[in-house]
């Protein structure tokens, strides 16, 4: 499915790039071309880091780029649908927080102790990672507006703060989910996505299962993976 969706999205960006050349719309050509290249970002990330990403992760990235740039920018969904930008920033907060969770969760569980406090710190790191990512994006939008005369921030402090609140809300949702997952080893979508990632990256999985991670939730977790 990921391959099919990715192919369709890339074709749409290519068609948009060609159409932009015909209509002499330089900005749209740059957006379409850059977006086409960005759809290959998961593969490039895997090649550079040697970390395998599940198909569901790749699909999410491609769909997000499609929603943000093809629908949002090229087809003006940001102007047509008032909540489109909020929806995307909330979604990005959810996904960047999950990425932050994976980073610190794997590293933390290589250590010989685990406690409820560690669970809380991991959840807080996930939230902080999402907020940091959202803040860096707003800085990027500000620089693009100032340097190239764009209107990514819609000329409004309200837009910037709304975006940051949406990023934080999405990050908070994942942060709370991650704490509940670690504390009680819940069987939900969060667990499935974490399992999919670990099973594709046996080096991380082996480090975790061979560590002295002795919490009750952790023991249950590894039993479900084996």
Q: What's the total helix number?
A: 11
Distance between the termini: 27 Å
- The radius of gyration over CA amounts to 20 Å
Overall spatial form: globular
Uncertain residue segments: 212-222
Strand content is under 5%
The helicity comes to over 70%
What kind of sheet is the major sheet? none
Question: How do the strands and helices of this protein lay out in sequence?
Answer:
Blueprint: H1 2-22, H2 26-38, H3 41-49, H4 55-74, H5 77-80, H6 84-108, H7 116-148, H8 157-184, H9 189-200, H10 202-209, H11 216-225
Describe the protein.
This protein is mainly alpha-helical and 226 residues long. The protein is 81% helix and 0% strand. It has two domains: 1-81, no CATH class; 85-226, no CATH class. It contains eleven helices and no strands. The longest helix has 33 residues, at 116-148. The two termini are 27 Å apart. The model is unreliable at 212-222 (pLDDT under 50).
Summary of the model, kept short:
By secondary structure, the chain is mainly alpha-helical. 81% of the residues lie in helices and 0% in strands.
Labels describing this entry:
226 residues, mainly alpha, 2 domains, 81% helix, globular
């Amino acid at each position: 499915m990921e391959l099919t969706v990715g192919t369709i999205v890339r074709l749409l960006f290519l068609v948009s790039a060609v159409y932009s050349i015909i209509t002499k719309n330089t900005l749209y050509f740059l957006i379409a071309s850059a977006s086409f290249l960005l759809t290959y970002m998961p593969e490039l990330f895997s090649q550079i880091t040697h970390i395998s990403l599940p198909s569901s992760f790749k699909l999410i990235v491609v769909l997000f780029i499609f929603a943000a740039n093809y629908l949002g920018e090229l087809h003006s969904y940001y102007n047509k649908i008032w909540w489109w930008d909020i929806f995307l920033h909330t979604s990005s907060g959810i996904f960047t927080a999950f990425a932050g969770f994976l980073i610190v969760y794997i590293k933390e569980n290589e250590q010989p102790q685990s406690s409820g406090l560690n669970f809380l710190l991991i959840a807080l790191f996930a939230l902080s990672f999402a907020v940091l990512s959202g803040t860096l994006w707003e800085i990027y939008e500000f620089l693009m507006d100032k340097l190239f005369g764009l209107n990514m921030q819609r000329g409004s402090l309200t837009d910037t703060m709304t975006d940051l609140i949406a990023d934080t809300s999405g990050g908070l949702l994942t942060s709370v989910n991650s704490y509940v997952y670690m504390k009680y080893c819940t069987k939900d979508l969060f667990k499935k996505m974490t399992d999919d990632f670990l099973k594709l990256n046996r080096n991380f999985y082996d480090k975790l299962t061979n560590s002295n991670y002795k919490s009750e939730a952790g023991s249950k977790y590894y039993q479900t993976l084996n």
